[in-house]
Automatic annotation (TrEMBL):
E.C. number(s) listed in UniProt: 2.7.1.40
Taxonomic classification: Bacteria, Pseudomonadati, Pseudomonadota, Gammaproteobacteria, Chromatiales
Reactions mediated catalytically: pyruvate + ATP = phosphoenolpyruvate + ADP + H(+)
Keyword Magnesium: yes
This protein's pathway: Carbohydrate degradation; glycolysis; pyruvate from D-glyceraldehyde 3-phosphate: step 5/5
EC category: transferase
Keywords: ATP-binding, Glycolysis, Kinase, Magnesium, Metal-binding, Nucleotide-binding, Pyruvate, Transferase
Domain Pyruvate kinase C-terminal: 363-445
Signal peptide: none
Entry's family note: Belongs to the pyruvate kinase family.
Any one GO MF annotation of this record: pyruvate kinase activity
Protein name per the record: Pyruvate kinase
Pfam families found in the cross-reference section: PK (PF00224), PK_C (PF02887)
Length: 482
């Protein structure tokens, strides 16, 4: 059994640069664990065809790949431009209109009628991830007259952000509902909801999915300021979380991104839920074969800080070097992970020391971690139904792989998001895991050294105790000891 040299998981957005069977196969071989489809771009027919090709590539390479559909949320975008790009200069007048037009450098369409009531003279509007700044001069009829404060190049369908202006809309929109149905029909493993503000936004997705008889792994994308006040509730409601730095870096001052990223990551580690660090990780690789020093360092710092996944957006969706970008993430992770300090362990335990009693699963996870540090086992085997026990162990970032044995295929797919966990689907839950594990390892030629095994109560064995076993392999060849 050959596992990768790195344990950080890799999410890659699939787009025109990467949607062929050939490139998808190469992305998987380079280390892509999760393929992200951004439903803000492309129609259902396009994404349907891409999903089929991702599954084909996974079958060809015999690797597990999860697919995540990114629900756009109430992101405002400009309409199409007659000619692009256009160049906006400082002090230019510019009209944003809710009229349906093909835009030019004087007047640009916006498909969001509420905007007329929400803005007033003096407000700041940002285009294209904050690169272009407009100031509102006046609102007249269906037009918002603006003045360009910071100019730049603009293309069709780029995003519009209004930091600090409440548009009174919830994250999960009708359009998202349609895309969720698409995700359900294609049995996607995960969906990520954009612009989450509260736990209710996640519950809305979950309830809508339930009504479709669909139970995806749900990722909350943190990209607006309000969400930062509700992080614990959002993490409780969601299955995982994403630091969506593209919009977040416009919605809050860009100077705060580093600290907010660290706080979200620590909290997710504490909750034992996976966290994805996203956007511009290797941005210059859209054009160049090598990343900048700053980008390579950003990826490394995200890993050192405890992220489960690193994500590519434009690099893999529309860049020149999608496969090199995935390989670069894998290589940085391989070099950085062994250098991680023990801090994440201490952090993940924070809060349990202040009087709060540790849960049995935490005690087991902590025991596994201590045992690993003193014995260098070959792997940790964690049978699981929901995936929560292996995630609880993984949050201490042990230096060996956690092999999660699960009879639940959805659980196996969802573990693609978790650092250091390799999921193995088994036929059924069983009362004799240690015997099964020995046999399973033996079949793969693993017949010496130590392997740790954890067990807890299960549906089949509700009275089972929480325990950690130490399997000493090959001590007594030929004799069946268990
Ligand atoms: N399916 C697709 N078809 C065409 N272009 C795509 C597709 N997916 C992504 N892209 C391109 O890659 C760019 C980067 O992807 P990304 O997922 O970051 O989208 P975004 O619109 O910038 O932001 P957000 O993730 O906040 O929606 C997009 O702006 C778009 O130009
Ligand atoms: C990924 C995403 O939506 C963002 O960074 O804004
Ligand atoms: K999106
Ligand atoms: Mg975003």
């Amino acid at each position: 059994m050959q596992l990768p040299d790195h344990k950080t998981k890799i999410v890659a957005t699939i787009g025109p640069a990467s949607d062929t069977l050939e490139v998808l196969t190469q992305l998987i071989e380079a280390g892509m664990n999760v393929a992200r489809l951004n439903f803000s771009h492309g129609d259902p027919a396009y994404h349907g065809a891409v999903i089929a090709r991702i599954r084909e590539a996974a079958a060809v390479t015999n690797r597990r790949v999860a697919i995540m559909g990114d629900l756009p949320g109430p992101k405002m975008r400009i309409g199409d431009l007659a000619e692009e790009p256009i160049e906006l200069q400082r002090d230019d007048p510019l009209i944003l209109t809710t009229d349906e037009i093909l835009g030019d450098k004087h007047r640009i369409g916006i498909s969001f009628p509420n905007l007329l009531d929400a803005v007033q003279p003096g407000d700041r509007l940002y285009l294209n991830d904050g690169f272009i700044l407009l100031k509102v001069v006046e609102v007249k009829g269906t037009d918002i007259h603006c003045n360009v404060r910071v100019g730049g190049e603009l293309r069709s369908r780029k995003g519009l952000n209004l930091p600090g202006i409440n548009l009174g809309i919830t994250a999960f929109t009708e359009n998202d509902h349609d895309w969720l149905r698409f995700a359900a029909e294609h049995r996607l493993d995960a969906v990520s909801q954009s612009f989450v503000a509260t736990a209710d936004d996640i519950l809305a997705v979950r309830r809508a999915a339930e009504a479709m008889n669909y139970a995806p792994f749900i990722i909350a994308k943190i990209e607006r300021a309000d969400a930062l006040d509700n992080l614990k509730a959002i993490l409780t409601a969601a299955d995982g979380i994403m630091v969506a730095r593209g919009d977040l870096g416009v919605e809050i001052p860009i100077e705060r991104i580093a600290v907010v990223q660290k706080q979200i990551t620590e909290l997710a580690n504490h909750f034992g839920k996976p966290v994805i660090t996203a956007t511009q990780m290797l941005e210059s690789m859209v054009i160049y074969r090598r990343p900048t020093r700053a980008e390579a360092t950003d990826v490394a710092n995200a890993i050192l800080g405890g992220t489960d996944c690193v994500m590519l957006s434009a690099e893999s969706a529309m860049g020149r070097y999608p496969v090199d970008a995935v390989a670069m993430l894998a290589s940085i992770a391989t070099h950085v992970e062994p250098e991680r300090s023990k801090q994440p362990f201490v952090r993940a335990m924070d809060g349990f020391n202040g009087g709060e009693r540790m849960r049995a699963v935490d005690l087991i996870a902590a025991s596994v971690y201590h045992t690993i540090n003193n014995s260098a086992p070959r792997a940790v085997i964690v049978p699981t139904q929901s995936g929560s026990t292996p995630r609880n162990v993984a949050r201490f970032r042990p230096p060996v792989w956690i092999l999660a044995f699960s009879p639940n295929p959805a659980t196996c797919q969802s573990l693609q998001f978790s650092y250091g966990i390799h999921a193995i689907q088994v036929e059924a839950d069983r009362p004799d895991w240690s015997r099964f594990a020995r046999h399973w390892l033996g079949e793969r030629g693993i017949d010496s050294g130590l392997v740790l095994l954890t067990q807890g109560p299960t549906a089949e064995n509700p009275c089972g105790n929480y325990r950690m076993e130490i399997l000493e392999l090959g001590l007594d060849a030929g004799k069946i000891c268990d």
